[in-house]
Amino acid sequence: MKDVRWELILMPLISVVLGIYLILKPAAATVALCSLVGWLILLAGILGTANALTFQRATLMKSSMLPVSVAGLVVGIFFITRPGTLIEIVGLVICVFLMVEGMTNIQNAVGRRRWGDRAWWVPLALGIACVVLGLYALFAPGASTAMILRVVGVLLTFSGAVNLIAVFLMKED
């Protein structure tokens, strides 16, 4: 264990720290993530606009990417100044996903019951849970996004801790 490679320790450690942050401060992490998305969209809009204008100047032809790039500028600025909007959009996407998954599980449970499967109630319970969580996400999109980030935080923390333990238990061959 004398020659520990630092990248094997650093990444799991970052994972644990980020996971704990997501668990403790999901609202702040959500705003930061949505702001980051806004900055990335803005950067893509800036680069796309510069590329489209350069193309137009070089070829004397209109670029079809110019309107899309300018729209990227506007959307990026909008999400940077109003990250709550993106939080609600993410919450609604979570809602749709959970509702579709829940209904699919309920339909699966009905089919399994008709086939005589004794464990038909498992997908039924999961389906009902998904529908309830989907309704929660519909009426509280920001809270559902925070809930998802907390789950991701738990997974990151657990994964990082397991990887850290594995590094320290590694034996040199």
| pLDDT averaged residue by residue | 86
Distance between the termini: 11 Å
> Helix-strand pattern, N to C?
HHHHHH
> How much of the polypeptide forms β-strand, as a percent range?
under 5%
Q: Percent of residues in helical segments?
A: over 70%
Defining key terms:
single chain; mainly alpha
Question: How would you describe this protein?
Answer:
With 173 residues, the chain is an all-alpha fold. It has six helices and no strands. The N and C termini lie close together (11 Å).
Outline the fold blueprint.
Layout: H1 6-24, H2 26-59, H3 65-81, H4 83-114, H5 121-139, H6 141-169
Helix pairs in contact: 1-2, 1-6, 2-3, 2-4, 2-6, 3-4, 4-5, 4-6, 5-6
Would you kindly provide a brief summary of this structure?
The chain is an all-alpha fold.
